[in-house]
């Protein structure tokens, strides 16, 4: 009887654990699948390498008496009057557009009139907002929303197009990618020497006592502070500080790197301290007994043996920099720049996502595509941490 | 006979624990002195006093005098002292580097950079430690790939590379098998010509085999110091006799 009761209790306990495990996995899997399914179609080399800001050319063009031959390409609507083939396509960031897919030899589109000169349209550029005059002297309008077929028809109807947008590029994330790289390099440049230095001091030099305990507790406490508070500090302290160097109190990557440095310091100090602590003390005493000074011992024996732990600290930091958004909003700003500069604001990948979703027409697909990139990099970081430790312990095991 | 170390009225405390009590001892040059005694009797602690390795333990407090060649060791620079007084540890502890780099570590730290000079030091030290023939083809291999006995001889070679005057050996064979132990003992016998050796051992036969002088420790006190032959043949103190005849320990 007693046994049966226990069996039932066990069953329910097991059941709840399985159910909760199932739901948590379902949730996490669901999020990843959602992001993958929404963003994957948008992910392309072009997306990664092109500018965010498109270049818009306002042009006008007159038809000639010539009629161009239709190359009859599947999906391309050809304008015989202008010798240009159009197709329905998507911009780099996933919005529908009308794209030039074919240009005949001698097409007037190769010498479009624009303000102060000529502009030659290229295959792959997008057209929008057409205004023209037909043979019957009526107005012709078309926009990218009408689709390629209607757009081509409108072109054929016009003897003269006096207003047309030719749009080049845009929608890419190259600028944000660069900003992220700048931020990573700069932040590591500041935080690694500081963090590892502090770790060396705390583990190898500081005397046990109240002072050390207080410092250690403070480091623990600061690693739990929400990053937005650091962002605020960054805005109040670092932007004016960088302003004294650059002369302008504006958002800047430099200030962003300083802010990330204080966010990362506790993490780096802790990880590096752990890495230094696990270096066998026999190495330390062996080195000292050989008449090496403490500094020599630290640089020749302790740090090389703590290297896997230090690399882990670096990888964790990179992951954190890529993922951080709240704090950086205060110091980097949210305007997407194609050519990021050290003393100007721009967006990291995470902030790029935020900016995309805050636009008039939120572009969730592009946001998801960036999310995939971020997830991939962070995933890569944690995998490499595992791999490094695997090889490290293997090497130690052979000892 | 010339005493290289003179220890006078040495008292050592680990926090509250009185680990060495009023130790007076002379260590003679170019002789092997063995410290014997049961575990926790302070023999390793005394050994670590001689090259000031106890400085690394924050709670350790030392009173009394130790002179090395007539100079108070506290007035000597630790780096200088430790190059002249080398140490071999209980557990073989080569660095996770190549065999060559292990031996060259000390000289490099001392500022020797010339390749030919380093090569010579490494070869000579390995030859003296009786390891050269076994490893000459794989000097660039990791030292961790050597056997325990070879690792310990490498540690001795690493110590010799600094050309010390004294070698402190803290139970150098306790982690080794009998054959490796024999090799190390033979090696220490040979090194006696050029170096003063102080060896801490648990193994009384070992002390009897290799040492010239023996000091018997008990509970932080030096009970008896004498020529090894007299200690083992004709112990003056009852406790020494009890220990070496195996009544306790």
Structure description:
The complex is a heterodimer of chains A (399) and B (249). Chain A is of the alpha+beta class. Chain A has twelve helices and nine strands. Chain A has three domains: 2-42; 54-168, Roll (Pdz3 Domain), CATH 2.30.42; 174-398, MetI-like (MetI-like fold), CATH 1.10.3720.10. Chain A has helices at residues 2-39, 45-49, 148-157, 174-205, 210-222, 227-246, 253-277, 281-289, 294-323, 326-332, 349-358, 364-397, and strands at residues 55-62, 77-79, 84-90, 96-103, 112-114, 117-119, 126-134, 139-142, 158-168. In chain A, helix 6 packs parallel to helix 10 (326-332) and helix 11 (349-358) packs antiparallel against helix 12. Chain B is of the alpha/beta class. In chain B, the strands form two sheets. Chain B has a six-stranded mixed sheet, sandwiched between helices. In chain B, helix 3 crosses helix 4 (115-128), helix 3 (99-109) runs parallel beside helix 6 (148-160) and helix 4 (115-128) packs across helix 6. The A-B interface holds A 207-208, 280, 282-283, 285-293, 296, 300-301, 305, 395, 398-399 and B 51, 53, 56, 58, 78-80, 82-83, 86-87, 89, 91, 93-96, 105-106, 109-110, 144-145, 155, 158-159, 162.
Care to give the gist of this entry?
The complex is a heterodimer of chains A (399) and B (249). Chain A has twelve helices and nine strands.
Which features characterize this protein?
heterodimer; A: 399 residues; alpha+beta; Pdz3 Domain; MetI-like fold; nine-stranded antiparallel β-sheet; B: 249 residues; Rossmann fold; six-stranded mixed β-sheet; four-stranded antiparallel β-sheet; 10 strands; globular
Describe the secondary-structure layout.
The complex is a heterodimer of chains A (399) and B (249).
Chain A: H1 2-39, H2 45-49, E1 55-62, E2 77-79, E3 84-90, E4 96-103, E5 112-114, E6 117-119, E7 126-134, E8 139-142, H3 148-157, E9 158-168, H4 174-205, H5 210-222, H6 227-246, H7 253-277, H8 281-289, H9 294-323, H10 326-332, H11 349-358, H12 364-397
Antiparallel strand pairs in A: 1-5, 1-9, 2-3, 3-4, 4-7, 5-6, 7-8, 7-9
Chain B: E1 3-14, E2 17-28, E3 32-36, H1 43-50, E4 60-68, E5 71-72, H2 78-84, E6 85-88, H3 99-109, H4 115-128, H5 132-135, H6 148-160, E7 166-170, H7 178-191, E8 196-200, H8 204-210, E9 213-218, E10 221-227, H9 228-233, H10 238-244
Parallel strand pairs in B: 3-8, 3-9, 6-7, 7-8
Antiparallel strand pairs in B: 1-2, 1-4, 4-5, 9-10
Helix pairs in contact in B: 3-4, 3-6, 4-6, 6-7
């Amino acid at each position: 009887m007693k046994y049966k009761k226990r069996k039932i209790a066990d069953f329910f306990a097991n059941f709840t654990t399985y159910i909760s495990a199932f739901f948590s996995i379902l949730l996490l899997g669901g999020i990843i699948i959602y992001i993958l399914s929404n963003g994957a179609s948008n992910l392309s080399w072009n997306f990664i390498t092109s500018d965010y800001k498109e270049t818009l050319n306002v042009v006008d063009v007159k038809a000639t008496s010539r009629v161009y031959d239709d190359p009859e390409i599947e999906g391309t609507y050809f304008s015989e009057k202008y010798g240009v083939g159009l197709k329905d396509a998507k911009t780099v960031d996933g919005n529908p557009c009308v794209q030039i897919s074919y240009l005949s030899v001698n097409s007037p589109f190769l010498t479009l009139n624009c303000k102060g000169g000529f502009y030659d349209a290229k295959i792959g550029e997008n057209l929008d907002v057409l205004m023209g005059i037909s043979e019957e002297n009526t107005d012709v309008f078309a926009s990218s929303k009408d689709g390629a077929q209607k757009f081509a028809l409108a072109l054929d109807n016009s003897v003269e197009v006096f207003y047309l947008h030719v749009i080049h590029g845009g929608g890419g994330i190259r600028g944000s990618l660069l900003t992220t790289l700048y931020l990573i390099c700069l932040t590591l440049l500041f935080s690694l020497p500081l963090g590892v230095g502090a770790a060396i001091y705390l583990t190898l030099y500081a005397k046990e006592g109240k002072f050390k305990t207080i410092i250690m507790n403070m480091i623990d406490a600061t690693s739990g502070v929400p990053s937005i508070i650091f962002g605020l500090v960054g805005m109040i302290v670092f932007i004016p500080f960088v302003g004294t160097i650059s002369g302008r109190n504006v958002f800047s990557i430099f200030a962003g790197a300083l802010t990330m440095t204080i966010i990362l310091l506790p993490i780096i100090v802790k990880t590096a301290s752990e890495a230094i602590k696990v270096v066998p003390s026999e190495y330390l005493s062996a080195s000292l007994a050989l008449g090496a000074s403490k500094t020599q011992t630290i640089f020749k024996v302790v740090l090389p043996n703590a290297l896997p732990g230090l690399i882990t600290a670096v990888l964790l930091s990179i992951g954190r920099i890529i993922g951080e958004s709240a704090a950086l909003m205060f110091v980097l700003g949210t305007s997407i720049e194609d050519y990021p500069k050290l003393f100007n604001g721009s967006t990291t990948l995470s902030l790029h996502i935020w900016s995309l979703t805050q636009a008039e027409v939120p572009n969730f697909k592009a946001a998801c595509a960036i999310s995939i990139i971020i997830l991939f990099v962070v995933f890569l970081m944690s995998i490499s941490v595992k791999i490094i430790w695997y090889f490290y312990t293997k090497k130690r095991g052979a000892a | 006979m010339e005493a290289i170390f003179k220890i006078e009225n040495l008292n050592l405390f680990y926090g509250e624990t009185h680990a060495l009590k009023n130790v007076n001892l002379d260590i003679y040059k170019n002789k092997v002195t063995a410290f014997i005694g049961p575990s926790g009797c302070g023999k390793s602690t005394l050994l670590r006093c001689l090259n000031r390795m106890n400085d690394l333990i924050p709670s350790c407090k030392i009173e009394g005098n130790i002179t090395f060649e007539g100079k108070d060791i506290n007035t000597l620079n630790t780096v200088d002292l430790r190059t002249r007084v080398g140490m071999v540890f209980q557990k073989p502890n080569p660095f996770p580097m190549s065999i060559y780099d292990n031996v060259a570590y000390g000289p490099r730290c001392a500022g020797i950079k010339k390749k030919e000079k380093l090569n010579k030091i490494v070869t000579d030290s390995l030859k003296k430690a009786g390891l050269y023939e076994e490893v000459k083809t794989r000097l660039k291999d990791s030292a961790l790939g050597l056997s325990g006995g070879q690792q310990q001889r490498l540690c001795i070679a690493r110590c010799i590379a600094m050309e010390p005057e004294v070698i402190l050996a803290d139970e150098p064979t306790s982690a080794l098998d009998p054959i490796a132990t024999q090799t190390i003992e033979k090696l220490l016998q040979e090194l006696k010509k050029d170096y003063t050796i102080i060896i801490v051992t648990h193994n009384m036969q070992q002390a009897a085999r290799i040492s010239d002088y023996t000091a018997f420790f008990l509970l932080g006190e030096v009970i008896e110091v004498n020529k090894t032959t007299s200690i083992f043949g004709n112990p003056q103190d009852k406790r020494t006799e009890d220990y070496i005849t195996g009544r306790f320990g």
